Amino acid sequence: MAQEVANKFIENVCNHLVRNLNITKIEEHFKETIAIQRKSAQSQIDFFDMLMMNMLYFTENEQVWENVFLKMLEKKEWLRATVFEEELLMHQMRIRQQVAEQMDAAKELFHKQYETEGMTEEAIVYDYAYSSAGHSMRIDLLTVLVSTPEQSKVLFDADPQETIRIINGYIAYHTDGIINKVKL
Fold this sequence. Notes:
mainly alpha, 85% helix, 184 residues, 0% strand
C-alpha cells in the first residue's frame, strides 16, 4: 500500500513537471545548443565527440543523483533545499573534472563505436537530447521533492530501490514523450 501511495505521488509530480512544457522552446534550446557545439567543432567527429562527452557527463550525474536520492530515502530525511543544491554543485564540478580526465580514453572508445556501430549524426543528436532532457527532469524532480518535504515524505514509507525504479520509469516515459515531439 505504501508503495502504491508513493508511486501515485511520483506520477503526480512527474506529470506536474511536464504539464506546461513548451515543446517549441525546448526544441529551440536543443537546436541552439547543438548549433553552438557544431560551430565550435573542428570536424564532424569532433562534433560527435562533444555530444558524446556531454552524454557521459549526464550518465555520471545520473549515478550521483541515484546515490544522493537513495541516501535520503534510506535515512527518511530530505536534505534542505540549499544543502541539496550545494551538494549537487559539488558533485557536478567533480564529475566535470572526471569527464575531462577521461576525455582521451572516452574519445578512443567513441571513435570505435562510430565505426563498428555506424552511428549517424541523427542518432547521436537524438541520444544527446534524450540524455539532456532526462538529466534536467531528474534534477527538477529531486528539487521539487526536497522543496516540499512534508508532501514528499510519503516516499519514506515505500521501498527505496523500488521508488527509484519507478521514478526512472516515469522519467524515461516523459523524456521519450518530449524528445519524440521535437524536431532536431
